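Q: C-alpha cells for this one, please.
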Amino acid sequence: MEKHIDVLGIGLAFTDLYKHVSFDIIHFFGLNSGHVHCLHSFSTEKQIQFKEAMRDCEFSSGGAISNSLASVAYLGGVSKFIGTISDDLIGHFFKDEQHKYNINFQPNILPNQASASCYILITPDGERTMVSDLGVSTVFHSANFPLSLFKQTSVLFFEGEILPFFDNTTLQTLIQNTSHLKIVYTLHSHRDITQRDVDFMNLCDVIIGNENEVNYLNSLPLPGIKKLQSDKIFITTQGSKGILLSDHGQTELIPVPDKIDTPVSTLGAGDAFAGGFIYGYSQNMKLRESIYKGFEMAHQILQQPHAKPN
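A: Here is the predicted structure, written as C-alpha cells:
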C-alpha cells in the first residue's frame, strides 16, 4: 500500500536556467527588463541566437508548485507532484531535483520533445528578466489522474495557469476524482481569467494569490465571482505588509512577524509561503497557524538566492 500524501500538486514542470548577462544582451533581444517573455514570440532565427547566448547556464528546478512542495517536504510533510517532462537533459535534471528535495514526482514523460524551461537573465543591477518556454509541460490527460491516487491524498494544490490546457474529459475526470478532497487553487498573472476558471474555483476551498491577482479576479463581471468572495477562503499575499485573510467574507490583515529589511532575493518567497501554508492546512492547523507556517518558510527563502529551501 502506498504512503499517504499530505499535499499533491499539479502544475508546470519548469527548470530555471540562470545566467548573469550584460545590458547589451537585454537590448539585443528587445527584452523588457524585469518582465517575463515567451521564447516562441521570437523569430526562429532569434530563438537560435538566444539559446546560443544562454549556453553554460546554472540549472535549478523551478515552477511554482514544485517550489511550494519543497517547502511542504522541508517541514516534514509528504508531497507528490504530477507534471509533464520530456526525456531530454532538462527533463532528467528536473526529475532528479524533485528527489533531492524529497518530492515524490510522478512524471508524464513525452519522449523526443522539449521539457519546459525558464531562462533567468540577471543583469548587473540585480534585475531578473525571464524568457520562458512551456515545452511539453502543459500536456495532461485523464490517465494522469486515477482515483486511487487521490484516495491517498489530504490536499490537492492546483496551479490555475494550466487549466486552459485541460480538455473537457481531463477536467471532468479531475473534478470527479477529487470531489472528496480539500483543494487549494493558486491564481496566476499570465493570462485572462475565464468563466471556466471561476467555475472550477467554486469547487475549491482556498484560493491563494498576490494583491494584483486577487483584485483582478474580484473586478471581473463573471457569474460566480460574488459566490467565491462569500463562500471561500482567500489568502492574499501583500509583500512586506503581510497576508490579507478572507474567511468566508470575514477579512483581517495578518502582519509579517519578522521583516527582513534587505532580502538576498525575493525569488520564490511567494511559493515558499504557499508551501508553508498548505503544509499547515494539510495538518488541520487553524488558518492563522497555517499562515505563520507560510511566513516561516518565506522568511527562510528571503535569506538565500534560490527558490527552494536548503
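A few notes: The longest strand covers residues 14-20. The chain is about 35% helix and 25% strand.
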